[in-house]
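User: Teach me something about this protein's shape.
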Amino acid sequence: MNKKIVLIALYDKLALGVRSIFSVLKKEGLDVSLIFFKELVNNNNKPPSKIEKRKLIELLKKLKPDIIGFSLRSGFFKTAVDLTNEVKKEIDSLIVWGGIHPTICPEECLKYVDIICRGEGEYPMLELTQIKNNFSWSKPGIENLWTKDQQNKIRPLIDLNKLPLPIYDKNNEYMIDNNTIYRGTPILEQVKYVAMATRGCPFNCSYCGNNSLKKLYPHEKFVRWRSVDSLIEELLEVKKNFRNLNGVFFVDEMFVSDIKWLKEFTKKYKKEINLPFEVDLYPNLVTEEMIVLLKSAGLRKVVTGIQSGSKEILRDVYKRHTFRESILSLHKILLKHKIKVDYDVIMDTPFGGEKETLDLLLELKKPFALHLYSLTHFPKTDLTELLLSRGAIGRNDIEDFKAKALDSYFIKFSHNSWNSLISLTSNRFIPKRFVRFLSCDYFIARPRLLAIPANVSRFMRLVYAGTAMFFRGELNFLIVKKRLKNLFSANYH
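Assistant: First, the predicted structure itself:
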């Protein structure tokens, strides 16, 4: 008899990895359900309430799964432990953890669950459902799966073109949040579809989760591309089913930079999809030819990382090569072709470099936007290990214990003058000279004073962004609600 499976995504209603596992199992005709447990809200995430936990337990009792799979990131490790313990009290199902945190920290996670999945989970989960004797679950002999009694080897990375297209099944998907539960696919009403053309990142930034993940695959091609036809086929299906769709955001670590692939993609995307889209790019690899091609197909915005204005910090600490010259060159190209740009910057670091970052941002011609992230110490990255060895951080500062993803992923203004000051650089209504004036020692020594113009600036940006979204037809009640949550929490994005 086929086993019943329930997959649970914590604080992630997009959950592209879980969606892929769900789709593989669905394609094989298995009885699988997908639960999205709470939505991620910038710096305003609350631990699960007793009511939400109860609703999860009641739903699981109704679904009667043989296997329950939790997908988790390091920031939600404590939440996963709590929920798993609650489930175990009342439900006798095999519990599997997967995602980036169990992959990187398997020994820690096996204290709480029967099995953990390391790396890509599509086919390990499928093979797990095919085990006939439940007593074999303690030693499943399946690559990527670990138990307390067996540590299986990591299987080769997946050929992305062999995976099925994402399946959306509103009758077997559920959302639990705000003390309520409803059946349905939560992203079907979104105006912007999130897709990936690739898996993996070609770079090895010391602070990034990919830094520790890549160590599992030292001899493999970590970055893989889908075929253009596979990607277009997915987007054609999405156009049929997402009734409010008016754009696509490709959330690859870095969008494909191969010119041959881009030429094929832009031609077919323009002809068959023809929607505005956004991509993530790495500054050093961008050429004007790439931007011209992408714009011809509908490119509207690029997201890219500055991280720091200090060449020494980038090179020696972050192990990045996005120096000032490459940022200025990219910015000039994007302005020339009227492409919007968002820059990622890491703040709240022990390394300094804030003045160099401020200088670089003031050198950029507006308009541009900023995503200011508070440095997060992910487990087992090179940067985390370095700081631990120096005594600069302790065990409780690492993300599985610190859980900055709940309320501190983005910067806060009140405790750090540089956070406030740098946030002002992208506001088109604030003169650069005024920002320079505020960078003097008097204001730097008074973070609460600098937080005032920073919060006013944030409010102005939200009003401006909301007005622009309204006229593009992208504003709905859910987006307004989320923006208001962001506004009244102490965060900046």
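Now, about its shape. The chain has a mean pLDDT of 92. The CA atoms of residues 128 and 136 lie 10 Å apart. If you'd like, I can walk through any region in more detail.
User: That's plenty for now, thanks!
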